[in-house]
Amino acid sequence: MKISEETVRHVAALARxxxxxxxxxHLAPQLSEIIGYAEQLQQLNLDDVAPTxxxxxxxxxxxxxEPWPGLARDVALACAPDSxxxxxxxxxxxxx
Amino acid sequence: MGYETVIGLEVxxxxxxxxxxxxxxxxxxxxxxxxxxxxxxxGHPGTLPVLNxxxxxxxxxxxxxxxxxxxxxxxxxxxxxFYPDLPKGYQISQYDQPIGEHGYVExxxxxxxxxxxxxxxxxxxxxxxxxxxxxGRHSLIDYNRTxxxxxxIVSEPDxxxxxxxxxxxxxxxxxxxxxxxxxCRMEEGSLRCDANISLRPEGSTEFGEKTELxxxxxxxxxxxxxxxxxxxxxxxxxxGQAVTQETRxxxxxxxxxxxxxxxxxxxxxxxxxxxxxxxxxxxxxxxDRVRAELPELPAQRRARFEQELGLPAYDxxxxxxxxxxxxxxxxxxxxxxxxxxxxxxxxxxxxxYLNAQGLTVEASPVRPEQLAGLIAQVDKGTISIKQxxxxxxxxxxxxxDAEVIIKEQGMEQISDEAVLVPIVEEVIANxxxxxxxxxxxxxxxxxxxxxxxxxxxKGKANPAxxxxxxxxxxxx
Amino acid sequence: MxxxxxxxxxxxxxxxxxxxxxxxxxxxxxxEQHDPTIGAFLTVDGxxxxxxxxxxxxxxxxxxxxxxxxxxxxxxxxxxxxxxxxSRILESxxxxxxxxxxxxxxxxxGVLLGKTNLDEFAMGSSTENSAFQLTxxxxxxxxxxxGSSGGSAAAVAAGMVPFALGSDTGGSIRQxxxxxxxxxxxPTYGRVSRYGLIAFASSxxxxxxxxxxxxxxxxxxxxxxxxxxxxxxxxxxxxPDFVRGxxxxxxxxxxxxxxxxxxxGVDAEVQAAVGKAVQTLQDAGAExxxxxxxxxxYAVATYYLIAPAEASSNLARYDGVRYGRRAAGQSLxxxxxxxxxxxxxxxxxxRIMIGTYALSSGYYDAYYRRAQQVRTRIREDFEQAFKRCDxxxxxxxxxxxxxxxEKVDNPLQMYLNDIFTIPANLAxxxxxxxxxxxxxxxxxxxxxxxxxxxxxxxxxxxxxxxxQARGFAMPLPRMGA
Lengths: 96, 476, 481
Known about the structure:
The structure holds three protein chains of three kinds. By secondary structure, chain A is mainly α. Chain A has helices spanning 5-14, 21-38, 73-78; strands spanning 62-63, 88-91.
């Protein structure tokens, strides 16, 4: 599978990465090679094989609906690069 | 050419849990910003979600109450997108194995029952809230709501008018409240609704181009927003123009919808199974228990009110819309009141008073047994209906029992004939003209005689008894 | 230099021949002396460590690791101590909470000395992807220590700490342990809580120890194992007494030798050393059987779809909003892109790109879902294999430590190096790397053992038996070229 530079740009946009033209040019063949390598999986007949998303077969792990202590607001906000006394602050979110 | 309206609704309902879906932070509404947060709901590096059992329980209850088929093996998936109020850069939701599918609710349109299909019910986490900063260049984010458990209820495109949309929402709200799943307070955001609406030529089976409608913060606005859209889209189509597929926002001030004009990026949510959570298996025992514990739902209760209590459909509908009202009403009947009389009181004086005061039925100053006590006083003939309404007002203000107020106000009716006969005879003797007029056929004259008797008893005489006694004496 | 095992330190402390502060001072001295060359530590928390150790001097021997100094890989969150995952994007991140393993080790009264270097977000096999520094192999400073837990491996190998924790997603404990001549253990997925481990690939990540002996590994595993209600994937499985289980030998145990490994380019010296180790086990009474893992050859392809896919999602939270580094931007979108582009290194970007691509619309079934299906096949291969044997033997890596810079520009080559370590992660199995020799160039070689799910006890017993029987001591590293 050849991955075009255009695809690389599209995927980068999905991942919120801005790539320079050099990076795009560098990544396109690398991703093609890696994805190309992964394509050997297409050789396998996998009809009726259930996918494994966890190596554990357990189910129903719950916590009870009981409160636990959280973070004090000043501690939580101190981690943020920008905040007011009450809120985390970011460049304006445009309508939409 | 006539057009048919096609509407589908996506309703988000916040579940009534004490803590968030994946951490132990409080879900309390209205707390100061960013005070119900912890490393987990803030998405700190290395933190992991642990599923709140009660959230699954409530979602299962909801899906069951909405007549869904339950996916006994359901799982969580990550829905990936970037937004500052979404701390992890993905929302934990359910994609291809939601908790419930293929359900329905019934609504009543113009006296006819109609089924609205429900495509799916799934469980997910809520996002935080962003608001505009005062400087206009920043947004401020509050993460208190982040991780509050939600269910999303997606309807089939079975809704054919804005009114049906409102009725559908009312039905959903009613079911959620009956099952104690959610407060469904639209003004607090615990029930939110987006709508897809399109028009098509009558008789056509293909869907027209649809718009998605957001930001409708009351049931009334959902109806109005959709009505505006019907009008707008009809106009476009009649002028031979196309409807653009877009997202529009309801603007309350102008009662119109406006295009959100955001750069419409093609969404690619890259769903995949959430590796930090294991699958949920709902075994038969669990499912059976939830089914068994499901309370009587609004539709069933309404049918019962009609069939067993003999209430008119209208009364049954009004009384069962809210579970608390229906409970109240049933308590009044249980305390001995006639079903229809109790219905009149609850729908009329009680709800009228509560609405005027902005009170919920739970906060009613008059308890059901007290209302039943008042009705009993009327039945016994102690007071007239008219007097009873005054007594009710006083009960609301004081919280006292009807009997006490009647005594305090000296309002007991006189029905005792032994007391009334001498008074009636005196009135007849003193008003020969009226007696003559009545016998001459003037019905009005009877009223005058009754009036005189009432006056003589300071209004306490039982008018029905007085009427009877006078007629017995002047012939009738 | 003289190096000590956890067991030796504890014995000395218990006999009151030494004090906790002396061991911490020794460790800090070793770091001061060697770390400028080796580059194992990103943060040394010397003052607080000494303070803690001195406090222990006055206390009675109590906790299981009382007074033992140790280090944590810098992707394990420590409250009030910088945790960077070796990424610019978390350059100055100070977690407001402790990872469960950090809490558990603190409860054993061990002394945390600092945080070790890694490939950024644990993505790499050489520790060269750290945003901050190179770590060098103590056996040959021109070579890589392996990765991604290169700092922890090198710190233990160089005698700076008797044990350290790392994390293993596709071999990130076992491969550097093999390259640096120490013991490295990846427990069964779910044995050790991941709460507080900065996620790379959630369904594969597992925390485990680096030690100088198998016995020490058993000791540390004991301290960090067990169910944690903060991690849904941590299992409420009984934790046996791993240390007591070490004795007992291998008589009657069946050792599974995987057939057809030649096609993966195993170095002749590595093959010889592993062969000799198998002989040693056989001499000790084990029975050797051949096992077949037909889908092993697909492991790398499978892994390099699943791990980046999960990573692309796990790393979405680094957006400059709630913590970590934020780059300037006129708009929110620009802020996001600048933050992530400046904050992540090239390998991390590459994996985010692979993962995003594999999950994106139209490709999910062909790549991600298919990889999950092959994962099922790989698990089934092991289920079959473990019907015939108790422990599977393989080399940890096809080669010994490679020179710094050799594979930096060839990501696929770098990935293929993980062929023998990846299967245990895909299947969730426990696996151990034990030094089994030294190459003609003086580079350590690792023997990898894999056991059935939850059977770390047998794994450690076989490892310990081998270690006792192998008939040589690992030479101390030269710390120079």
